[in-house]
Q: What sequence folds into this?
């Protein structure tokens, strides 16, 4: 079994690292906040004080951090893994970052014979805990095959999309669809509420027809129950949507509905709710 | 078993009437176009030449026609059922029309002791054929119970939303969500395509995660295969969305994403494609 290094122990990363430990993998971790590390140490993980110290102990390094800057720091920064990882180490970056940044990082790592996959995920905290994530993989197919058993522990739908960056493109598509689905649920619920109709019954009816979606199940329930504990934080969804709009801008295409969904996330965050679940967009539509 | 009158033998109505015949109901039909009637006559339906002639032979009259004007014509018009239906006849209007129109029609029928339910459906042609529609019912609960066995033949998710018109409100919510889902899929696919990424793989990955939806399954497939045979015609979805916007206007609420989705349906129809499936919105986004 390959030795795994794991960097990023947030809402998603922590249950993913636990699943790998419980599947029998040796897992080394690096966490900026020591309290994030302790539950993993209790299950057998070994903690290191920087990505650079961690890297030589790993055959495969998984990163799942907040944004492009964080990925660059842990991989390429002053104490990044690039300075110490063994040749043929495979980096699986499961963060959501710009496709173009992924391509640039992969090229830099390649100069040290380090392989990279972009492998962002969908399925939320629940999917991370249950090991049922959807994993969208960009990079070389033969490298994916070498780490597939590891990804099989984390997810149930592992799709090789294409070359470096294509996993991030698929994730961008995912974020477009989820943000617009939350807007759609919000608008439908506003219409029903203003009409004096029972939202729970509307949701029940819609779940049985063509409007059925995971979003209506999960986010529709949150909205009905007015329970916006994340889940997936508005600030992160907002960050992802700005990546989408930047990508669209570079490609010269317009995405008006994605743009509006991003406005809503902007408004939610600017009203002081960055840490609510992104379905709280209902509150500002 | 109640004797059923069935008016409206389109994409949805025809398989629904067939399912009732095959479940053993006596079904009388009225069809404007005789060729729509013949496959039902072959299965035992009895055809009448007007709604008025049909009505006395039915305990329950189902209507599923295109718009408010059509519903008013068959129920209240010169040859409408109102002139001849027996007291305690139950009209189940499964068309998608304005909630406020439904309430007005129900009140007029009540003057002749005719009961009415608004019971629009979701689930598409496939749901109509398989008898798995979601049925959103507005009107009196005791009247619904009297026709539930009939609705059980047509659908699998029959939800009593509330009083007259509330079924139509739920359907409006359904149409909002589907139109915005089609826009979302279109935008995601445009981003993927412009990025040179395989759309089929993106769809496969997204179906396994939080972006999973019936819309991505059904409409996503149509878009990938460039197959816009309806399904649900753009002209009808457009009509439904204008009902939604009119409703929102009357309630004094704004639905910006629904408004944009309606713009897209307008554009599709005005470019000469009223009879394509509404997922062809992809072509004009």
A:
């Amino acid at each position: 079994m390959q030795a795994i290094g794991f960097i990023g122990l947030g809402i998603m990363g922590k249950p993913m690292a636990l699943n790998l430990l419980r599947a029998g993998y040796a897992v080394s971790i690096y966490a900026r906040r020591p309290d994030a590390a302790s539950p993993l140490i209790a299950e057998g993980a070994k903690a290191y004080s920087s990505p650079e110290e961690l890297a030589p102990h790993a055959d495969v390094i998984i990163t799942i951090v907040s944004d492009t800057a964080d990925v660059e720091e842990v991989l390429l920064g002053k104490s990044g893994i690039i300075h110490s990882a063994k040749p043929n180490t495979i980096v699986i970056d499961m963060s959501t970052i710009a496709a173009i940044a992924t391509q640039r990082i992969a090229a830099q790592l390649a100069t040290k014979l380090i392989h990279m996959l972009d492998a962002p995920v969908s399925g939320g905290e629940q999917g991370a805990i249950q090991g049922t994530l959807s994993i969208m993989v960009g990079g070389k197919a033969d490298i994916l095959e070498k780490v597939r058993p590891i990804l099989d522990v984390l997810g149930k739908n592992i799709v090789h999309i294409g070359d470096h960056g294509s996993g991030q493109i698929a994730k961008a598509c995912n974020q477009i669809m989820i943000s617009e689905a939350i807007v759609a649920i919000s608008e439908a619920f506003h219409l029903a509420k203003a009409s004096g109709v029972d939202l729970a019954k509307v949701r029940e009816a819609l779940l049985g027809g063509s409007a059925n979606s995971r979003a209506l199940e999960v986010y529709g329930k949150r909205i009905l129950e007015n329970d916006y504990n994340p889940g997936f934080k508005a600030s992160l969804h907002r960050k992802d949507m700005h990546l989408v709009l930047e990508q669209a801008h570079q490609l010269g295409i317009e995405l008006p509905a994605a743009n509006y969904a991003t406005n809503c996330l902007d408004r939610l965050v600017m009203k002081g709710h960055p840490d609510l679940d992104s379905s709280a967009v209902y509150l500002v539509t």
Notes: The mean pLDDT of chain A is 97.
